[in-house]
Amino acid sequence: MTRERRRGVLSIDEGTTGTRAAVVLDDGGAAPPAYLPLSVRSPDHLRVEQDATEIWANTVEVCREALDRAAADRVEITGVSISTQRATVLLWDTVTGSPLTQAVVWQDRRYAARLREWEPQWDAPLVEHTGRPVGSRAPLLWAAEEIARNAAARRAHRAGRLAFGSVDTWLVWKLTGGARHVMSATNAVAAGAYDLRTGDWHEPWVSFLGCPPDVLPKIVDDDGDFGATDPSVLGVRLPILSVMGDQHAAMIALGAHRPGQATTVHGTGTFLDAVAGDRPPVHRRQVPGVLTLVGWRSRGTSVFSLEGYASTTGSAMRWLCEQIGLFDSPAQLAALAREHTGPTRVMFLPALAGLRTPVWSPEATGILTGLSLSTTRAELARGVLNGFAHSVCDLLDGVQEVMGGPVTDLFCGGGLAGSDVLMSAQADLIGRPVRRARDHETASLRGVAYLGGVRAGLWPSVSAAVAGLQQAPVFEPTLSEAERTQARAAWRELLARHVGTAEPGGPRPDAQEESPS
Predict the structure, then answer these.
(1) Distance CA 364, CA 119 (A)
(2) Where is this region: Disordered (predicted)?
(3) What are residue 19's DSSP bridge partners?
């Protein structure tokens, strides 16, 4: 009996700490992904960098492995989709195809102090046009200064052979053999100079930062014209169907498609994204760290979203395990947390790269408090996960305040979402049920493939692609309202002591932060 030939999309997910690729099949599921880790280096407490050559080499290797698996399984590949970490940028020579800089990662804060000086002049107009204030990171400022101080970049620019872009720009340029120098809308909005009204670069801010316009990529729809893969790269010519920032792709896969629906994705950082509708939302109050983004841009039409994020949750867990050695692995930490079923005074603030919501403080550091001679490793682990859950509550409170209404559905995904303890803690502290989406570990891979697959005719809509997946399990709150209120008050008091707010949880009304990957 001859097996029916299936169809699928080769999907790439290039994250901060690893690269994976898998074929997303026409039933909405993903084949087992090929994966390679990525190195991240921090030369000092402000700089975070990666090797763009390693990113590219990893991408090629995992794609070839995924294509080999698809061939063995008789899957017809209709195209390629790419999900990437956002706001990680680099410069490269378009003739040699080689990077001229390290890739500066979205967690980098080298310009935080200087950018604060520009807040009085620029915050209001930037929020109006780009949905975000000056913030603590400016990829286009970095590009301008790198061209000025880097002799190789300066020579390439003078010769008309210098390109700037984020990771999606870099991968599309390499995959197409240099035929496309573009950036998807969801990645461009994270670069901090995307005009929400025009869908193009916001020229006044670009000019002020001193970034030469000729090095900037063209901004296109997330399912726009990205060209096709060069056969010499992957051994086959395939259309590049869609390119998205990873959190936006996760929104699609996890099921947040209508206004009021939201996702929480626990990766290197934790991101909360809520669908806001077909117009940029009016911020009823400026809440630190809550930004207006393009949720996705398809066929010339934008769906907007609101986002808040905590930059170091998953990376804080790895830090506790790998660098400090308090636990053998994140899996052990999660397992130990299950053993502590009673109350705990241990609190962990995962602000290892600054704090954004509810208080904007890029210089803030992490806290581990409430320790005593009776503290066990299990209680310590529970305190760490509770800290992540409190961070989610802070993000949700901020997004709802800007929306002027409640989030109706909260879908959770990402590696840490596999912890029942963390999911239960989120439900308890939010006071509402939360859903852990099925196959949440592959959300970014699948979401960008769903958007591309609609373009290729695999599904009539992204909702249809998600509809075939199993129902998400629900975690119900178990704390009483009094217990929840007490726990949240203790957390706000910790923040007030640490960052010096005027009142527990009281944010600076004029401050926000830009969003990354």
Answers:
(1) 19
(2) 497-517
(3) 14, 36
Q: Please give the Cα distance from 365 to 316 (Å, whole number).
A: 11
Question: Quick check: helix, strand or coil at residue 497?
Answer: helix
pLDDT at 173: 98
Residue 439 is predicted with a pLDDT of 83
Hunting for tokens 């991408």 — which residue is that? 59
Predicted local confidence at residue 283, as pLDDT: 67
C-alpha–C-alpha distance, residues 132 and 126, integer Å: 6
Residue type, 26: D
Contact (CB, 8 A) for 136 and 513 = yes
Total length of the chain? 517
Residues of the chain with pLDDT under 50: 1-2, 502-515
What is residue 504's predicted lDDT score, i.e. its pLDDT? 33
- Classified as helix, coil or strand, 236 is coil
Q: Which residues pair with 261 in a beta bridge?
A: 409
* pLDDT value at residue 284: 65
Listed in sequence order, the residues at least 6 apart from 303 whose beta carbon sits closer than 8 Å to its beta carbon are 275, 277, 278, 294, 295, 296, 297
3-state SS of 21-69 is EEEEECCCCECCCEEEECCCECCCCCCCEECHHHHHHHHHHHHHHHHHH
Dist. CA 20–CA 35, nearest whole Å: 4
DSSP β-ladder status, 409-414 and 367-369: unpaired
**pLDDT score, position 12:** 98
3-state SS class at 130: helix
DSSP class of residue 470 equals P
Please, what are the domains in the chain? 7-247 (3.30.420.40), 256-436+469-499 (3.30.420.40)
Query: Phi, psi (5° rounding) for residue 288?
Result: -55, 130
Q: Strand, coil or helix: what is 368?
A: strand
Contact (Cβ atoms closer than 8 angstroms) between residue 68 and residue 23: no
- Which residues, at least 6 apart from 508, have a Cβ–Cβ distance to it below 8 Å? 288, 359, 360
- 319 backbone dihedrals φ, ψ, rounded to 5°: -60, -45
All residues at 6 or more sequence positions from 138 whose CB lies less than 8 Å from its CB, including other chains: 111, 115, 192, 209
Q: Which residues pair with 20 in a beta bridge?
A: 13, 35
Cβ-contact 516, 167 below 8 angstroms:
no
The reported pLDDT for the residue numbered 285 is 73
CA distance 332 to 377: 10
